[in-house]
Automatic annotation (TrEMBL):
InterPro entries: SGNH_hydro_sf. This is SGNH hydrolase-type esterase domain-containing protein.
Amino acid sequence: MQAKGIQAYRASRRGSNSYTLGQRGWLLGNIARTTEVAKELDRNWRGMGNEAVENARHDTHRKLSSYLGYHIIVSPIGPYNTRLRRVIRKALSGQAIKIGILGGSVSVGHSVDNPGDKWQAIYAQWWRDTFFQDEYLHAHSAEDEQEGLADEVVEWVQLVDGSMADTQSDYLQSCYLEHIDEDVDLVLVELGINDIRRAELTTAFEYLLRSLLVLPKNPAIINLQAMSLHPSEMAPGGDPELATAMYYDVPSVNIRNVLLPHLLQHPELESELTRHWFSHTDEKGRVDLKHLNAQGHRSMAEMLISMSQRILCDELKKTNAGLQEEWKSSDKNIPGNEVLEYLPRLRMSQPYDNHSHVEPTKPVCMSVTSKNHPLVPATMKGWEKWKATQSAIYYRSTEPGSTISFQIKVGPLGRARVTYWRSMSALGSVWCWVEVEGTEDSYHVFGKRLDGYWDHKDLHAGTYMTDSVAENIPPGSHNLTCRVLGRDEGSSPEKGAEFRIIAVDSA
């Protein structure tokens, strides 16, 4: 029946306003999609043999219904979702779309065995099934297969998955194009867990949004937030980023708002429920409370689908009612639709004035993991390209005095940064500097010490960190060099000397 509504939309765009009875019935009588999240709860919780579980299940259904009916669509995310509506209209008209993913280890699929069970795979398949089912079936017909044309099928929904474990907004604000394509129609950002509560990460998240919004196709963005029961706190850096997303009319979907109240109200079921949403890590039954398992991924995907379905139905209703003409205000003091996709001229954290305008940045990023602009040293001594046990790749040195240099191109911001690995293990420190011709002491004027070790017990396992090496660098081509400091010069109590670099960027 859903396909009939889409066929009706496409017919109306060709100038025909006629609908079959079945199509009209779908438009008017089947607007709200029943989410699979409730069904998932039914399938997995029914039969646990615990009356409290059954009561909790019904309670969660009620909260879920409220969340899907209000919290996703109305208040916390802004009332417009204009860009997402435009992308849905594009798919309705039969044009192919490209979806980009920027996320951390949850999106990578830690704790999910089958790639098809990841949230982004499920969500992309919904787009295929909803908008392009007829095209897909036609392209894969028996006749095409016999004629050898099946391999020439248009990829109607292309998924570009740029997720990378331990990634934060400060890295992606400059290096996002090393992970997704420039011509994306829709970008889903999942960084709420990896971005710890630091003001600079909230600022970096805003710069990332601003950069994504001005890509060539002016893509829609969805801010997706997973749930982590990290021992430090339940409110990660994603919470202040919700306000930033709202400022830019970026819809946010947060699964924690559904699941966490239920966990808090039923402590007697904590063991059963955490094992339902999170993954077992070993034979002793311990649970990884940071990474949602396949059931958690499906729930996130179904929440995304529910939000997208409601917008789709709204667009179809407008078509059915003949409301395709945009509303225009008769009062010049009331903004109309022309402001719905604009990029605010001021950042959210700036003071208001009548003249300032934040210019978009065009950073240059080189990353070890990038195919577009791989990080290649100009010179190195005592360093090696090294692959860690969890498939992470770095430039790594363990010897004091070792040096590595990269050629960089500095733009109007005059900034150069290094992304490196930090943890509580025995890591060392480096001194990095930008060599500027004509500056007598570039080593100190445009240099900074970077410490691999940090005393951050909440992130004992470690994370990537992006730090500025220097500011106010003259624009142009320069060399950025890092030298491993002596064991007594670093911050590690274990006097370590190991240091790992993953990326260099400049702007």
